[in-house]
Predict the 3D structure of the following.
Amino acid sequence: MSLFVNCKYAGAEVTPEAVAKIRPEVEKAFNLLRSGGGAGSEFTGWLDLPINYDRDEFEAIKTCAERIKSDSDVLVVIGIGGSYLGARAVIELIKSNNYNALKKDTPEIYFAGNTISPSAVSDIISICEGKDFSINVISKSGTTTEPAVAFRIFRELLIKKYGHAEAARRIYVTTDKSKGKLKELADREGYASFIVPDDIGGRYSVLTAVGLLPIAVAGVDIDSLMEGARGAREAYLNCDIDKNDCCKYAAVRNILYRSGKKIELCVAYEPAFTMMCEWFKQLFGESEGKDGLGIYPSSAIFSTDLHSLGQYIQQGERHIFETVVFFTEPKEDLTINADVEDIDGLNFLCGKKLSYVNKKAFEGTVIAHADGGAPSIIIEIDKADEYNTGWMIYFFELSCAISGYILGVNPFDQPGVESYKKNMFALLGMPGFESERERILHRLSE
Ligand code: PA5
């Protein structure tokens, strides 16, 4: 077991009585998920993905990753939401949040198509200037506006630089197996293509080609990543709260929610976890936030944010709980040396490791926040390697699905995401949205 859920500081509301009360609901949610009888069950392919992923495609991903490594200085990954967050999160956690700036023998990786900001797109264009680059465009639907617009821009750039034939060799498409505009284009132009399985939604797709190709290009061992996910799947086949940490975590966060803790902060003491927090927020936010329900997922990196959000967490409105992911072994460590003059008065730390100081910050903060009424669920993981990351991804996905069913929502749809798109299309004059356009223009002029 590489991940351990510690509820010692989860707050006074998490009583044995509260746990006993929610236990049958957790079991029901778990069994509903595993039996395929729950809402959105057609999107639960991620549950057994670690044991039944397409081995041929997996090898093709590795082959393409090697090709990109050998012929590109830069890989531009184009996608939004579940089509980029997981890859970026894994690369930053396992490699570094400074991955692009560090010395390495793998391409720099930039993420485009997750914003419509012209400045952001222009930055990546100028980064690509004078460099060999390839594109991995990822969109399950193949119709999402942000990546489609970015792909048009970067594809044109690639064709200008290399000509049609070589550009086609440098474009890798990850999309639906048969439908969507991207699939049509990929087939017509002969782009290397990977599939987003029908039964896996965007935010649960990091361990498919969606995440695996960019992750492999960064030099991350995707075999170990899948092995970790496989280990987690094996470990979490039982619905007993006392034996299954996913059930335990889902139970405790629902107990806290019912007691008025409406905001969950995903916290880590590693800046390399920042994008993993973003992935977490999408996973839980899109899965649970519907029907007027759901814990609002937020995040913080400590101790950094203790100097910005810390005041609010300690003494503001008492509606927050934390899910703290703590890695017990850092990837690198440093020792604090003695200083003859000791002007800064830090010689009492002489010989101590930075990881030791970080751990004391974690312990002190958990107690301070618990005392202040902001309880923590602690997720202890020994180190941020491939195996543990694969395990953790599966842990959060399964916990989220169980938690969503306990809450009584469909954790696999996202109908709310459509509202802004409809309005944007109408305002941009997309054919078919004429009547909507009138209504919105009227609202804007009120
Ligand atoms: O989780 C989801 O389904 C969404 O966040 C999608 O990943 C996101 O909207 C992008 O969709 P697509 O991959 O179809 O472009």
